[in-house]
Structures are given as structure tokens and as C-alpha cells.
Amino acid sequence: MKAERFNQALKSLHWSKETLASMLGCDLSLVEAYASGAVEPPPKLSAWLEVLAQLHDDLADQMPKSLAGQRYDSNR
User: Fold this and answer.
1) Which of 1, 25, 47, 64 shows its CA 20 to 30 Å from the CA of 55?
2) Is 0.85 topped by the overall pTM?
């Protein structure tokens, strides 16, 4: 996975580099290296991100819209 696609996948998932590093249990510098293209992510990480990002993109139009503008009222 090239850096451009890596960054697109994170954007599709609404994940920061910090979030991914925390999820993976690795140092932020490693995720930053993937994002900059200094090193390519391992194949399993690339495949995992690709599947998640593609699924997220494919289902984006099915996200429930009925909750937009709603809020919780504890006085009810």
C-alpha cells in the first residue's frame, strides 16, 4: 500500500494516525512512516485497512440519517 492510499484509507475511516497507532499498540512514528511513504505498511495491515476503508465507503450512503440534529434530553 502506497502512502497516498494509506492516507486515503485513514481519511475514509475518519481515523487519525494517533488513533491507528493506539489501535495497533505501536509508536506513532511507525504510522507516520507509513503515511509519509518512508516505509510501506506490512501486507496484513494494508489488506485490513483496504477492506475496512472499502466497506466504509460502500456503506456510507446507508448511514442512518434520522438521528441528524437530535440530542438527548435527560428531563424526559
Assistant:
1) 25
2) no
- The answer to whether 49 touches 41, Cβ cutoff 8 Å, is yes
Do 41 and 6 contact (CB within 8 A), yes or no?
yes
User: Alpha-carbon distance 32 to 61, whole Å?
Assistant: 30
- Residues contacting 69, CB < 8 A, separation 6+: none
Q: How far apart are the C-alpha atoms of 11 and 29, rounded to whole Å?
A: 18
**Tally of CA atoms within 13 A in the half-sphere of 67 that contains its CB:** 5
pLDDT tens for residues 42-70?
A: 999 999 999 999 999 888 778 788 888 88
**All cell numbers assigned to 71:** 440530542
Instruction: Say if CB 56 and CB 63 are below 8 A apart.
Output: no
Please list, in sequence order, all residues whose beta carbon lies within 8 angstroms of the beta carbon of residue 2, skipping any fewer than 6 positions away.
37, 40
